[in-house]
Amino acid sequence: MTFLARHLYAKPRTWQHLFVVFAVAVLSLTLSYAASSRAVEAYTVDASWVSLTSDDGGFSIRAPGYPLPSTSGSVLDGGRAHFYELNKPGVNFGVGYADSYVVGMTPEQQLDAWRNNAVGSLHGTLLSERTVSMDGYPGRHVTVRMPDGKGVLHGRVFQADYRLYLIMAITANAKPSREATRFLDSFRLVE
Question: pTM to 2 decimals?
Answer without folding.
Answer: 0.75
